[in-house]
């Protein structure tokens, strides 16, 4: 592996990481060498991308097929009024360049699908899913399982959010396989149970909280400090300002690494 060297300007830029126990110079070098794919440059993706870029992640892929609309700006703080009508991947790349010129941004202006997911995921070391629908979440999580990539995934409702990390291609210390996304959510909810933010609204700052937490978990996956969220789901209730963490386990019936799973 080629040695990653931090320049003088980078050492000053990342000084607060470099003196931080648990990150330090070696951790910052890992961040610079990292390649992260972010699915969605919207409410969750906006703060996530900002903090990954500020942290010094060397290469960030952004996948989104949408354009910036005026109604996005209440929460998608990566974009500005001048970006309305512009592809989100272009707006995101420009914002990241202003924030940190040391970060390489790869733009994927397309919709992630079962046909292209594995190829896209395989090109990166860590994946963070900030998409807004269950169909995409299943596609991303399945691709990450098959390509053996850690996945940080989050979702928000009107006043609530959730976050977890997945490494289902590995096993726990007990020898049991790590859970998949399909262990947590075996099937998508019935139509109408999980309406979109366009239907019910969403608190702008809520996406900032969950997106920032996603960035923290991605950095944790890269650097390796603290305890991962594997097998743990963080729930946040903004109405009562309450966090709760629930544990979940491998489901032997899940189709990816369950007892009757078929290799792919």
Question: How would you describe this structure to a colleague?
Answer:
By secondary structure, the protein is α/β, with parallel strands linked by helices. It has one domain: NAD(P)-binding Rossmann-like Domain (Rossmann fold, 3-Layer(aba) Sandwich). Helices cover 34% and strands 17% of the residues. The chain is built from 10 helices and 8 strands. An 8-stranded mixed β-sheet has the order 3-2-1-4-5-6-7-8, with helices on both faces. The two termini are 29 Å apart.
What's this entry about, in short?
The protein has 264 residues and is of the alpha/beta class. Helices cover 34% and strands 17% of the residues.
Distance between the termini: 29 Å
CATH topology: Rossmann fold
Instruction: Count every beta strand, where a strand is a DSSP E run of 2 or more residues.
Output: 8
Mean pLDDT: 94
Please trace the helix and strand order, writing H or E for each element.
HHHEHEHEHEHEEHHHEE
Largest sheet composition: 8 strands, mixed
Number of domains: 1
Alpha carbon gyration radius: 18 Å
Low-confidence stretches: none
**Continuous helix count:** 10
Strand order of the largest sheet: 3-2-1-4-5-6-7-8
Helix content: 25-40%
Strand percentage, roughly?
Answer: 15-25%
Determine the CATH superfamily: NAD(P)-binding Rossmann-like Domain
CATH class: Alpha Beta
Structural class per helix/strand content?
alpha/beta
* CA-based shape: globular
CATH architecture term: 3-Layer(aba) Sandwich
Domain THIF-type NAD/FAD binding fold: 14-248
Subunit structure: Homodimer. Forms a stable heterotetrameric complex of 2 MoeB and 2 MoaD during adenylation of MoaD.
Protein name: Molybdopterin-synthase adenylyltransferase
InterPro entries: ThiF/MoeB/HesA (IPR045886), ThiF_NAD_FAD-bd (IPR000594), Ubiquitin-activating_enz (IPR035985)
């Amino acid at each position: 592996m080629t040695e990653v060297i931090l320049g003088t300007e980078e050492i000053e830029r990342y000084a607060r990481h470099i003196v931080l126990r648990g990150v330090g110079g070696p951790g910052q070098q890992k961040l610079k060498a990292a390649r992260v794919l972010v699915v969605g440059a919207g409410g969750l993706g906006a703060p996530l991308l900002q903090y990954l870029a500020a942290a010094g992640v060397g290469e960030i892929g952004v996948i989104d097929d949408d354009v910036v609309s005026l109604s996005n700006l209440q929460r998608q703080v990566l974009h500005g009024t001048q970006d309305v009508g512009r592809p989100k991947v272009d707006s995101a790349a420009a914002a990241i360049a202003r924030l940190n010129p040391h970060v390489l941004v790869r733009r994927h202006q397309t919709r992630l699908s079962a046909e292209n997911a594995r190829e896209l995921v395989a090109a990166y070391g860590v994946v963070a899913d900030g998409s807004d629908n269950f169909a995409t979440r299943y596609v991303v999580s399945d691709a990450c399982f098959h390509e053996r990539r850690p996945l940080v995934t989050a979702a928000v409702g009107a006043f609530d959010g959730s976050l977890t990390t997945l490494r289902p291609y590995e096993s726990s210390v007990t020898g049991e396989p790590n859970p998949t996304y399909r262990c947590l959510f075996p099937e998508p909810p019935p139509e109408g149970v999980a309406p979109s933010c366009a239907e019910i609204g969403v608190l702008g700052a809520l996406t900032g909280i969950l997106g920032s937490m996603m960035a923290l978990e991605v950095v944790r996956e890269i650097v390796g400090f603290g305890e991962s969220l594997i097998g743990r789901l963080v729930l946040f209730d903004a109405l009562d300002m309450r966090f709760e963490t629930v544990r979940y386990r491998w489901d032997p019936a899940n189709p990816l690494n369950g007892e009757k799973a078929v290799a792919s």
